[in-house]
Amino acid sequence: MPKFQWEATTRAGEVRRGVVEAADEAAVQNRLRADQLTPRKIKKQATSIQISIGSPVKPKELQVFTRQLATMIDAGLPLVQCIDILANQSENPIFQQKLFQIKASVEQGSSFSDALRKHPKIFDELYVNLVGAGEVGGILDTILNRLATYIEKAVKLKSQLKSAMVYPIAIMVVAGGVIAVMLGKVIPTFEAMYQNFDGAKLPKPTKVVIGISRSFIDTWYIYFGVVATIIGLIVFAMRNEAGRKVLDRLLLRVPVIGPVLRKIIVARFTRTLGTLLTSGVPILDALDICAKTAGNVVVAAAIQHTRAKISEGLDMAGPLAETAVFPSMVTQMIGVGEQTGAMDQMLQKIADFYEDEVDVAVAGMTALIEPIMMAFLGVVVGGLIVAMYLPVFELAGNIETK
Fold first, then answer.
1. CA atoms within 13 Å, Cβ hemisphere of 354
2. Domain ranges across the chain
């Protein structure tokens, strides 16, 4: 069924806009008049193929929308009017279109959470479930404020995760580029120069470096093919369940990077679970959502194992400790939270602590990796340069001897 963009006015003269599915323009006009709206413009929406990877809405846009919606609802504005205002002021055309569709669903009698559930690329299970809990409990504005805070902290954690992963990779790429330029351009220049030295005997290190350079120039496609194959295998493993499990387990065990990733995972898990429990989501549903948003297959399996044990009547701390994924301090604090009946508050405190720990850990990791990488570059590049200058040093020594 085609979609139509419409613009109409209320009896008070207020302009309303939206998107609706209908058989033709006459059906749209009839629907608007039934809603006591006077049609001004009705335009058939052009059908287009949209190719998008991931969410078409940035986390910052979603956070601002959530915070503004919470403020408007707290001020007493009707939900439909709030969505309409936020849709009209949105600068993202895709987000604007989706908001108009959500507004139309709510106007037709759907709950807000059900309307959001139709757009999973923008509103994930956590968002939808929290909104549903807020609707049932009559505290939608409070839940939306919690969601906005959660999104802010989640964005911060995601940027820290990128820093932990991208920084060393970027330095390795730069190092590889420098070495490739040395082997492909600089060393052949030295080789050509030494060929003009009649009777000059090249030192062993110089011969080895020249041999590597010749091999790189003659069979460069093999070197790049090996690198491309390794990258392809990693991408394939990430898209394969068994491979992803191996990679995620290795990442948690990598020196320097592993401890940082573990802290990020703990902060994300405790913040997500704490937010869900505080908002009234049942613990089994909350753990299921946490597993889906964990971002690590090994951690997700540990959470699902804990969920299964809880469904059998056990507490949470014991099964969580059995997985050996979470630090003992975390499981012990969760155990205290269960005993005191303040699990949600304890989880929020753990999340606050580990988010601060992540800040320190990322800064420390960056400070540690930078000199290691610089030393590596210095040894490799410096070694290549020294090897190529050895004949010059020997020649100078022979001239002084004579």
1. 27
2. 1-48, 156-402
Q: What is the pLDDT of residue 51?
A: 33
What's the residue count for the chain? 402
Question: For residue 115, which of 80, 141, 68 has the smallest C-alpha distance?
Answer: 80
What six digits make up the tokens of 93?
């055309």
Instruction: Count CB atoms within 10 A of the CB of residue 90.
Output: 19
Q: How many C-beta neighbours within 10 Å does residue 22 have?
A: 18
Q: How far apart are CA 102 and CA 108, in angstroms?
A: 10
Interval 368-397: pLDDT, tens: 777 877 788 788 888 888 888 887 776 666
Say which CATH topology domain 156-402 has. Receptor-associated Protein (1.20.81)
Q: Which residues of the chain have pLDDT under 70?
A: 1-2, 21, 23, 45-55, 164, 197-200, 394-402
Q: How many Cβ atoms sit within 10 Å of the Cβ of residue 349?
A: 15
Q: Which residues on neighbouring strands pair with residue 372, listed in sequence order?
A: none
pLDDT tens readout for residues 318-331 = 888 888 888 888 88
**For the purposes of burial, counting CB atoms within 10 Å of the CB of 129, is it exposed (0-12), middle (13-18) or buried (19 or more)?**
buried
- The structural architecture, per CATH, of the domain 1-48 is Roll (3.10)
Residue 297 Cα to chain centre, angstroms: 15
Which tokens go with 156? 């911060």
Indicate the SS3 state at residue 38.
strand
Q: How far apart are CA 70 and CA 326, in angstroms?
A: 34
Sheet containing strand 3-9, strands side by side: 15-21, 3-9, 38-44
- Tell me the C-alpha distance between 55 and 122, whole Å: 5
The pLDDT value recorded for residue 398 is: 57
**Backbone phi and psi for residue 37, each to the nearest 5 degrees, phi listed first:** -120, 145
**Which residues have C-beta within 8 Å of that of residue 138, sequence separation ≥ 6?**
none
The identity of residue 99, as a single letter, is L
204: which 2 tokens? 């062993």
